[in-house]
Design goal:
328 residues; mainly beta; Immunoglobulin-like; five-stranded antiparallel sheet; 1 helix; 28 strands; 5% helix
Length: 328
């Protein structure tokens, strides 16, 4: 006898639930978990080497799958910066899950990085750090102080400055620079160590008489020194012209009037700091006036042969900008 079965709502819901659970179990992912990390020993991280050279240790990473070493995984290495390279750029892990490359640092000193990447792996990319140090000192360059004019026995307005770098223009810290005066010019600090920027400076004093002299800067191991040409003017006092509406004595700081005392036969140098100005003789005794100039660094030098008090102002600004030279 044939029997028929009738499903109730509760029974149908139960079957539906079982089917759904069965479907979920059949879709469970079995994708293995891969990880990439620095090798537990001698990974090559945090090394130091001279620019454009290889650190002593290679870079090494380990790849695991579900916690066990994975052989045959293809790892990609990369680095950045001029001259930087990794060799080989790709590699397969061995039976221990390890793979290595050799890193050539770039040409710029300081912190550098390299990476190891594996697609789909946790921890990718792995970042390695290194410190690149400058190479030997090979270049000596003048930066400031050349071609200036000062007064007899007084400091030149700008310090003489040089830079010491390696072949890739990286600054050298602690290089010894020797500054030697010529033609009667003297250096306050004849031996100076370069700072973190590779720079060394010295203050220079004018000769005991007017003339052309200079300074030679030299560093051991660098064949060619650099030379600065410095002129000592026939003057023993200096006055700054501007910036602003002001004459200022560089010796004593007097301003409007700038007052300087010299002996007969000595001279004064006026140096423009900016703005349209002149040195214009007023009153008696008088002296030859300068032209109006707006060029910063413009010079006017005058020797006073006779005793007296010489008054002057600026032809542009008149009595609001004054000075005097007392000649004894």
């Amino acid at each position: 006898m044939r029997r028929s079965m009738q499903w109730t709502g509760a029974a149908l819901a139960a079957v539906t639930m079982i089917a759904a659970c069965g479907g979920s179990n059949s879709s469970t992912s079995n994708t293995p978990a891969r990880t990439i990390a620095k090798a537990p020993a001698a990974s090559g991280d945090a090394q130091s080497a001279v620019v454009a050279t290889e650190p002593s240790d290679s870079l090494r990473v380990v790849v695991n799958e579900d916690g066990a070493p994975l052989a045959g995984a293809m790892v990609t290495w990369a680095t950045t910066g001029a001259g930087a390279a990794v060799s080989p750029p790709t590699g397969q892990t061995d039976a221990a899950g390890l793979v290595a490359t050799q890193w050539t640092l770039g040409r710029s000193s300081g912190s550098q990085t390299a990476t190891a990447s594996l697609g789909g792996a946790s921890g990718s990319p792995v970042v390695f750090h290194a410190t690149a140090t400058p190479g030997p000192a090979t270049n000596l360059t003048k930066l400031a102080g050349d071609g200036q004019t000062g007064i007899i026995g007084g400091s030149f307005p700008a310090q003489v400055k040089v830079a010491v770098t390696d072949q890739f223009a990286n600054p050298i810290l602690g290089a010894t620079v020797h500054f030697v005066g010529t033609g009667g010019v003297t250096t306050i600090n004849p031996v100076v160590l370069t700072d973190a920027n590779g720079q060394a400076v010295t203050t220079v004093t004018g000769a005991a008489a007017a003339g052309v002299g200079g300074v030679t800067a030299a560093v051991a191991g660098i064949a060619a020194p650099v030379n600065f040409t410095l002129t000592t003017a026939n003057a023993v006092r200096e006055v700054t012209v501007g910036a602003g509406i002001v004459f200022t004595s560089t010796r004593n700081g007097d301003r409007n009037p700038a007052v300087d005392t010299i002996s007969a036969g000595q001279g004064v140098l006026w140096r423009w700091a900016g703005g349209d100005h002149s040195v214009e003789s007023t009153g008696t005794p008088s002296f030859a006036s300068s032209t109006i100039s707006s060029t910063a660094g413009n010079l006017y030098v005058l020797t006073f042969g006779s005793a007296g008090t010489y008054q002057y102002d600026c032809a542009v600004h008149g009595p609001s900008m004054t000075g005097r030279v007392v000649v004894q």
